[in-house]
Design brief:
Blueprint (H helix, E strand, L loop, with lengths): L20 H42 L6 H29 L1 H9 L2 H4 L4 H80 L12 H36 L4 H31 L1
GO biological process, one term: nuclear migration along microtubule
InterPro entries: Karyogamy_KAR9
């Protein structure tokens, strides 16, 4: 709730000062009251800008194509920081100016609960403004944490996509080897059946093509050499990131678990394929 905008009039005593200094103090308090109203509006404006940044976040998360939302958000944050600095400076200045009133209030606690004198009004207005400011700082902290999480999730998705891409390439290489192994085994079985049926009947199947095996083996080994250590490294980075952040993001936890299990299964297939390729050589 915005601090109430109350004008401090000069026809009632504030600190019960007498003489020419009275009118000077009244003017000073009037200026402070106006400044608090201005700061309260600034706080409200910052809250609106926080809401706009949150809208940009949600728009970015629901977008199907990349956009320049991150740049816009960073620019908005920079502008927000400038406004926050202005409000911080203003509140410090007001607190310093009101120190005599704070001291009087501590000595006479009933001032805050008394009839709406200028003293009570200015104290309530200040308390309301400080309450708004404290709430705003909490909102800012939440926003910064959420934006930090957004950036980490963007990096996580990029790195996980890289790991998935390398595993897909390895899986294709394994599948080609498995197809070749199956063809060799089938040909061997057919040749054995043909020989047992009639020694005079020769199988029309050609023997295993050595050039095909060499080409397949070379491609397979090259992909293993390049992608296996790279995938292991990328997944270890993902593991550390997930553990360090203790993230609760559902997408992150699901993809991390899927990638870990996929890599475990793929390494088992690679080990089995290595043995089978050696056997058919």
């Amino acid at each position: 709730m915005r601090a109430e905008n109350v004008t401090i009039t000069a026809n009632r005593p504030m600190f019960k000062w007498k003489g020419k200094g009275r009118s000077h103090e009244d003017l000073q308090l009037l200026a402070i009251s106006s400044r608090m109203t201005e700061l309260s509006y600034n706080i409200s404006d910052i809250q609106t800008r926080i809401f706009e940044i949150q809208e940009l976040r949600h728009k970015s998360q629901s977008a199907t194509e990349p956009s320049n939302t991150t740049g816009v958000i960073d620019q908005s944050l920079s502008s927000l920081d400038e406004r926050l600095e202005t409000v911080t400076t203003g509140i410090k200045s007001i607190n310093k100016s009101l120190e005599p009133l704070f001291e009087r209030s501590e000595k006479t606690p009933t001032i805050r609960e008394a009839a709406p004198t200028e003293e009570a009004v200015i104290l309530r207005k200040h308390a309301a403004m400080v309450g708004e400011w404290d709430a705003l700082q909490k909102e800012i902290q939440v926003l910064r944490e959420e934006l930090k999480e957004d950036k980490w999730l963007t990096v996580f998705r990029t790195v996980t996509d890289q790991a998935d891409g390398m595993m897909s390439s390895l899986e294709k290489a394994v599948n080609r080897c498995q197809d070749f192994i199956w063809q060799v085994q089938r040909q061997g079985l057919e040749d054995a059946i043909s020989r047992s049926s009639s020694s005079s009947i020769r199988s029309d199947k050609s023997p295993m093509n050595q050039d095909m095996f060499n080409s397949l083996q070379e491609s397979y080994e090259a992909k293993k050499k390049h992608y296996m250590p790279a995938t292991t490294k990328v997944l270890s980075i993902i593991d550390k990131g997930v553990q360090d952040r203790v993230t609760k993001n559902g997408e992150c936890l699901r993809r991390h678990a899927e990638s870990t299990q996929r890599w475990r299964n793929l390494k088992e297939r690679i080990a089995r394929t290595d043995s089978e390729m050696e056997a058919v050589h």
